[in-house]
């Protein structure tokens, strides 16, 4: 059979996806489909916020204090221009939610990527090298596990801000949050990858790579890493929800994103100051958005964990 005929009979990319067990599992779960749709809507709304938001909450030229604390449009005293009302600075809640979701998702994604890269690298090194290297990395991980993630993030956040000194807090807030949250989540990746590496490094394909003289870094990157990525994807999905919650918690405590560029957590903190005076919409709508987003991502993570578990197939 010629090469061209073999290529013609080879299934395409989308055919392989639709014929996979994961796609079959996805189609069977109505809850997962709804969670995926909700997550996609929030992601796209955040991504295209400049195009679909009624107002730009960061453009000071368009803000007016006369519009501050305006109730939702269906309430008495509401303004049709602001469907979900406004906050204390006259920013539309709907527009601020769209822009704030961008910041929350950006911090979540960046911190998960940072934690994954750090944790996977240390996990591969610990599992493949073994000995004293393994002991040092795992003892550091064990020590960190004795502290709650939010406490680690607060400690790192305070330390980094103190080390930065005179650098503008608003300019560094995003990067400080990413580093703080990422350093509080790397342990899960490291422990999982280390356990899988301890199994994979004794298999024949790794032994063969050693015999032909491949460098250990190439062996870890080309041979071991692809075979330990399944659990990592599950951890990353679940940690995305945790990272968003952690960012919201830090912002609520006043050490996260500044009020001038509010995330969902910052909006909830601002609204909390006005909750008991009757301006409930400032905190309720961002809170609902945050809860729905985290719930949807968690449901996707639970499904992915079950779909990648060979014992449940």
UniProtKB/TrEMBL annotation:
Transmembrane regions: 31-53, 103-128, 140-160, 172-189, 224-245, 280-304
Keywords, in A-Z order: Cell membrane, Membrane, Transmembrane, Transmembrane helix, Transport
Any Pfam family: BPD_transp_1
GO cellular component assignments: plasma membrane
A GO biological process held by the record: transmembrane transport
Membrane protein topology class: Multi-pass membrane protein
Domain ABC transmembrane type-1: 101-301
Family annotation (InterPro entries): BP-dependent_transpt_permease (IPR050366), MetI-like (IPR000515), MetI-like_sf (IPR035906), OppC_N (IPR025966)
Localization terms from the record: Cell membrane
Family: Belongs to the binding-protein-dependent transport system permease family.
Protein name listed in UniProt: ABC transporter permease
Organism from which the protein derives: Hoeflea prorocentri
């Amino acid at each position: 059979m010629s090469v061209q005929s073999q290529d013609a009979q080879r299934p395409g990319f989308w055919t392989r996806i639709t014929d996979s067990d994961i796609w079959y599992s996805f189609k069977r779960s109505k809850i997962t489909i709804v969670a995926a749709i909700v997550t996609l809507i929030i992601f796209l709304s955040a991504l295209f916020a400049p195009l679909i938001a009624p107002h730009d909450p960061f453009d000071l030229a368009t803000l007016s204090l006369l519009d501050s604390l305006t109730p939702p449009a269906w309430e008495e005293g509401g303004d049709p221009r602001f469907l979900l009302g406004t906050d204390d600075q006259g920013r539309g809640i709907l527009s601020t939610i769209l822009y704030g979701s961008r910041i929350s998702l950006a911090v979540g994604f960046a911190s998960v990527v940072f934690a994954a890269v750090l944790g996977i690298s240390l996990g591969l090194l610990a599992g493949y090298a073994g000995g004293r290297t393994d002991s040092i990395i795992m003892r550091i991980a064990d020590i960190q596990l004795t502290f709650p993630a939010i406490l680690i993030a607060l400690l790192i956040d305070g330390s980094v801000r103190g080390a930065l000194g005179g650098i503008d807090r608003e300019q560094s807030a995003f990067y400080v949050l990413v580093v703080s949250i990422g350093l509080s989540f790397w342990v899960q990746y490291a422990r999982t990858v280390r356990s899988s590496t301890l199994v994979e490094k004794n298999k024949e394909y790794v032994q063969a790579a050693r015999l032909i003289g491949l460098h250990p870094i190439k062996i870890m990157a080309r041979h071991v890493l692809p075979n330990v990525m399944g659990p990592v994807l599950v951890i990353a999905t679940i940690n995305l929800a945790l990272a968003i919650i952690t960012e919201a918690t830090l912002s609520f405590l006043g050490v996260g994103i500044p009020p001038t560029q509010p995330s969902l957590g910052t909006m909830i903190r601002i609204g909390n100051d006005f909750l008991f005076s009757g301006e409930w919409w400032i905190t309720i709508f961002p809170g609902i958005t945050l809860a729905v987003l985290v719930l949807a991502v968690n449901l996707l993570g639970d499904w992915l964990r079950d779909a990648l578990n060979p014992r449940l197939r």
